[in-house]
Design a protein that fits this description.
The complex is a heterodimer of chains A (107) and B (123). By secondary structure, chain A is mostly beta strands. In chain A, 0% of the residues lie in helices and 50% in strands. In chain A, a hairpin with a 6-residue loop joins strand 4 and strand 5. The termini of chain A are far apart. Helix content of chain B is 0%, strand content 51%. Chain B is built from no helices and 11 strands. In chain B, the strands form 2 sheets. In chain B, strands 2, 4, 5, 6, 9, 10 and 11 form a 7-stranded mixed sheet that branches. A 4-stranded antiparallel sheet of chain B has the order 1-3-8-7, with no helix packed on it. The chains are: A mainly beta (107), B mainly beta (123). Chains A and B meet through strand 4, strand 5 and strand 10 of A and strand 5 and strand 10 of B.
Chain lengths: 107, 123
């Protein structure tokens, strides 16, 4: 199965900071990558699909990039509601997998 | 409003069985692949199973293959997960999700999630 490695596993940041989370696939997956946000006690919410397409209703401060094995989720200016855990997911094959998650905490 | 509502979770002994249901509304259920994802307490997300829009093609994670069965009933707009031979490690919150694709790549992603139902396997 394709493995996804997210880094960092956690980070501390302040409101207004630019935040970057990376996701590395164990083999090439073209652009078959999505990003999700999960707040405590809530279900995941789709942010980005096809590596760089913004999901409906998601603020433009979120962006995704990358192709092949290396991907990035960027939050251009962190807002209070963005403190959450973020997961990448590959759907290149039907043995789909998630990254281990990145928890974004308040500094 | 597009909604998914899971039910059927609960406490079950190791080796036991449970059937989860996911009632879909607000979209044409028969047009979309659907899936199940679980999350163990305090840990990350794990894909469990998925099924094609027409119910013909099921897919399973290695960890549940042979024990879990996914199915769907279009007349009831409902997705199911039959879980047999349950183990302690199956304890998790189980989420139902709608799968979508978009041009030009048509890769799947999960654009709608339910609130989840909790399964606890314990003696």
């Amino acid at each position: 199965a394709i493995q996804l490695t997210q880094s960092p596993s956690s980070l501390s940041a302040s409101v207004g900071d630019r935040v970057t989370i990376t996701c590395r696939a164990s083999q090439g997956i073209n652009s078959a990558l999505a990003w999700y946000q999960q707040n405590p006690g809530k279900s995941p919410k789709l942010l980005i699909y096809d590596a760089s397409s913004l999901a409906s209703g998601v603020p433009s401060r979120f962006s995704g990039s990358g192709s092949g094995t290396d991907f990035t989720l960027t939050i251009s200016s962190l807002q209070p509601e963005d403190f959450a855990t973020y997961y990448c997911q590959q759907f290149y094959t039907y043995a789909l997998t998630f990254g281990g998650g990145t928890k974004v905490e308040i500094k | 409003e597009v909604q998914l509502l899971e039910s059927g979770g609960g406490l079950v002994q190791p080796g036991g069985s449970l059937r989860l249901s996911c009632a879909a509304s607000g979209f044409t259920f028969s047009s979309y692949d659907m899936g199940w994802v679980r999350q163990t307490p305090g840990k990350g997300l794990e894909w469990v199973s998925a099924i094609s829009f027409n119910g013909v093609s099921p897919y399973y994670a290695d960890s549940v293959r042979g024990r879990f069965t996914i199915s769907r009933d279009t007349s009831k707009n409902t997705l199911y997960l039959q879980m047999n031979s349950l183990r302690d490690e199956d304890t998790a919150v189980y989420y139902c999700a709608k799968l979508s694709t978009s041009s030009p790549y048509y890769y799947y992603y999960m654009d709608v999630w339910g609130k989840g139902t909790t399964v606890t396997v314990s003696s």
